[in-house]
Specification:
The complex is a heterodimer of chains A (about 500) and B (about 210).
Chain A lengths: L24 H9 L2 H23 L4 H17 L1 H14 L3 E5 L2 H15 L3 E4 L3 H5 L2 H7 L3 E4 L2 H8 L16 H11 L11 H18 L2 E4 L3 E3 L4 E6 L3 H7 L3 E7 L3 E2 L5 H12 L7 E5 L10 E7 L3 H6 L14 H5 L1 H6 L10 H12 L18 H5 L6 H19 L5 H12 L3 H8 L2 H8 L4 E2 L7 H4 L4 E2 L6 H8 L19
Parallel strand pairs in A: 1-10, 2-3, 2-4, 4-7, 5-8, 7-10
Antiparallel strand pairs in A: 5-6, 6-9, 11-12
Chain B lengths: L2 H12 L21 H14 L3 E5 L4 H8 L5 E5 L8 H5 L5 E5 L7 H6 L2 E4 L3 E3 L4 E4 L16 E7 L3 E2 L2 H7 L6 E4 L4 E2 L7 E2 L6 E7 L1
Classes of the chains: A alpha/beta (about 500), B alpha/beta (about 210).
InterPro entries (chain B): FTHF_cligase-like_sf (IPR024185), LUD_dom (IPR003741), NagB/RpiA_transferase-like (IPR037171)
Protein name (chain B): Lactate utilization protein C
Organism (chain B): Arthrobacter glacialis
């Protein structure tokens, strides 16, 4: 049970599946931003949930104490992961559960498929799960001739619309009620044609649509919110009861869980079951939480499996500056407060994990060089709202900056010729290295005024500086710099009376 | 090499720098500072906020209250360990619902459960601060399925089993038992973040607190 590693260090093995952006963030964001309906839906939804969260967090006198505990528990989990995994495995197995290990998305999909085949079934019901989205399980099962039915209302909406989730908690956050109504009328085989767009009526339509499926399902696939090492217990946190249906009614239950989802002890749940509901839905507690430890004879599924998934998590763990991203409990508070997410929505991030946490988690799991993931760490203004909201205090801005550095280094390593940015930085280094250098450059200010012309704005800069003027103008520079003005005013002999020296006409 | 060994080696290699294990600061509240009456009041407030129906009932009045709540109901299911006296008033009444008892010897099928109108169970404990009732599959609460499939759940809770904060409940619960924590009836906020009560779980939750 020793954690000391004595073998040969291995290179990080990166993950695969739906954690890659296939289009760069700026490109995808530009398209998404043009969708005004999306921006209206998102603005409304993120602000509603943000306000709710603030209200219930303010109720607790010990919220910060809880965050400190949560952060330390997760750090301790990662530091002792091998021993905790072994402990969890022993406890879960002792109670009749069966554990499988999957190195990557492909292996996990194959294991789940084989387990379903063993039952002879060709249909499964599913509880909303980020892990199974990450590995693309539904698509894989479909290729294998197995139909997977999403049962969470938002996932159902997304699946019926052949769309992709855009938020980890409210996957259909980008759809409003009338859009949902249209999808139901179009896609549900049996539906009341007089269905209105009231959320209560829409929820009822979903209940009717899924009821038979639940009552006859033989196999369910779920994720897990927490795995408790000292007892071997798994947890699913939900609202609608679809989770309870899937976890209780079928004969076979297959759960897919990332290896980082463990907590060391049963009592750690007392911290996380306070942090999670308030951070995610802004509720004091979510309507339903289910906990199970292996098999309970006569109660619930008698054939209980767990697939432990790596898929790049060990690569994230190997990055000592980035590994705290694995502390994430998928609450989605960071995306709800993010000014970038609020405008672009989740699809712009390309990966299963959108928003600030996705911008660090995705490249950490796939490696910064994978597909377009190197553009994700730039999808932030580094305002820090995500760090403030994070219930386990992941310093997302710091990791974003770290990954930007990785990106620059990885690109520089490829090039022999210095880039424009390198030349600019060299130039800046020279300019700021001495006062006389700066003086020399400042003599060029009137030139800038000339370029700006009569309307006194510069609309387009050349080269990579053009990125700055892509969406904003630069006002014309003043005809002299502050330093030049100071020198003039403080020349020996110049009459200086404090407080009267500023010539406003000069300081444009 | 097996996938398990492979992953374990990857983890150990990733932790080559031997990150230190922090001491967990547990400065948060782990025990109640409220009186019994305050806890009761807080729980009622939270449950009502979740749109559950709450009834404060002296223990002696439980049979009559239960009969009142079930008037017009044609059938119910109860776990085999539910105190018999709670149902005593149902037997005398001609219009009383048929009572199906779910027991290890006679487990009701999904179809049978789908046909009953309501389920009556006890509860293990409840957290007043969050308005959460915990079921742990004890004999008075039964299998998880019986409190899930019927559309109405009547849950009886002893006032003495109410704690204020979650850590107190965690200390009372045994991890190995299958558990369901319930905070109001089934709900969703998936459409425009507007909360709607009643999706797949019981759409009506009645909580009777025995005082």
């Amino acid at each position: 049970m020793s954690n000391t590693f004595l073998g040969m260090p291995t290179l990080p093995v990166f993950g695969q599946g739906n954690i890659n952006a296939t289009e760069s963030f700026p490109q995808a964001a530009r398209r998404e931003l043009a969708n005004t309906q999306l921006r209206a839906n998102l603005g409304h939804a993120t602000h509603t949930i943000r306000d709710k969260r603030l209200k219930v967090v303010a109720e607790l006198p010990d919220w910060e104490d809880m965050r400190n505990a949560g952060s330390a528990i997760k750090d301790a989990t990662m530091a002792n992961l091998p021993a905790l995994l072994e402990q969890f495995e022993a406890n879960f197995t002792a109670r009749g559960g069966i554990i499988h290990w999957a190195r990557d998305a492909q292996e996990a999909n194959e294991i789940v498929t084989a387990l379903i085949r063993e039952t002879g079934e060709t249909e499964v019901v599913k509880v909303k799960s980020m892990a199974t989205q990450e590995i693309g399980l539904n698509e894989y099962l479909e290729e294998q001739g197995i139909a997977a039915y999403e049962t969470d209302l938002a996932e159902l909406i997304v699946q019926l619309d052949h769309d992709k989730p855009s938020h980890i908690l409210v996957p259909a956050i980008h759809k409003n009620r009338s859009q949902v109504r249209e999808i139901f009328l179009r896609e549900m085989p049996v539906v009341d044609p007089n269905l209105t767009d009231e959320p209560a009526r829409l929820a009822e339509a979903a209940r009717k649509h899924l009821r038979k499926k639940f009552l006859s399902a033989k196999v369910a696939v779920s994720g897990a919110n927490f795995g408790l090492a000292d007892t071997g217990t798994l947890t699913v946190v939900e609202s609608e009861g679809n989770g309870r249906m899937c976890l209780t009614l079928p004969e076979t239950l297959i759960t897919v869980m990332g290896i980082e989802k463990l907590l060391p002890t049963w009592s750690d749940l007392e911290v996380f079951m306070q942090l999670l509901p308030r951070s995610s839905t802004g509720e004091r507690m979510n309507p339903y939480t289910s906990l199970w430890t292996g098999v309970t004879p006569g109660d619930g599924p008698q054939n209980v499996h767990l697939v432990m998934l790596d898929n790049g998590r060990t690569a994230a763990l190997a990055d000592e500056y980035g590994r705290t991203a694995l502390n994430c409990i998928r609450c989605s508070a960071c995306m709800n407060v993010c000014p970038v997410y609020e405008r672009t929505g989740g699809h712009a991030y390309g990966s299963t994990y959108p928003g600030p946490i996705g911008a660090i988690l995705s490249p950490l799991m796939t490696g910064i060089k994978s597909e377009e993931n190197s553009s994700l760490p730039y999808a932030s203004s580094l305002c820090g709202a995500c760090f403030d909201a994070c219930p386990v205090k992941i310093n997302i801005p710091e990791i974003l900056v770290h990954l930007r550095g990785e990106d620059v280094d990885s690109k520089r390593a490829k090039l022999k010729v210095p880039t424009q940015m390198d030349l600019m930085m060299k130039g800046a280094q020279w300019a700021f290295s001495s006062g006389s250098h700066l003086n020399l450059l400042e003599k060029g200010l009137p030139l800038g005024k000339l370029v700006a012309g009569r309307d006194k704005v510069i609309k387009k800069l050349p080269g990579i500086a053009g990125g700055w003027t892509q969406s904003r103008n630069i006002p014309a520079p003043p005809s002299q710099s502050f330093r030049q003005w100071w020198d003039k005013e403080h020349k020996p002999g110049a009459a200086v009376v404090p407080g009267t020296t500023i010539n406003e006409g000069e300081q444009a | 090499m097996s996938a398990r060994e492979d992953i374990m080696n990857r983890i150990k290699s990733a932790l080559r720098d031997a990150p230190e294990t922090p001491v967990v600061p547990r400065a948060y509240r782990r025990s109640s500072t409220m009186s019994d009456a305050q806890r009761l009041e807080q729980l009622v407030d939270r449950l009502v906020d979740y749109k559950a129906n709450v009834f404060l009932t002296p223990a002696a009045d439980v049979p009559a209250k239960l009969a009142e709540l079930l008037a017009g109901t044609s059938s119910i299911v109860v776990p085999h360990g539910l105190p018999q006296e709670w149902l005593s008033a149902l037997k005398d009444d001609a219009g009383a619902p048929a009572v199906h008892v779910d027991s290890p010897e006679r487990r009701l099928t999904v179809a049978e459960l789908d046909a009953v109108d309501a389920v009556v169970t006890g509860a293990a404990t409840a957290v007043s601060e969050t308005g959460t009732i915990m079921l742990d599959g004890s004999d008075d609460q039964g299998r998880r399925i019986i409190s899930l499939v019927p559309d109405r759940h009547i849950c009886l809770l002893h006032a003495a089993d109410i704690v204020e904060v979650l850590p107190e409940a965690i200390a009372r619960l045994e991890a190995s038992r299958p558990q369901t924590w319930i905070s109001g009836p089934s709900a969703t906020s998936d459409i425009e973040l507007e909360r709607v009560e009643g999706v797949h779980g019981p759409r009506t939750l009645d909580v009777m607190i025995l005082t």
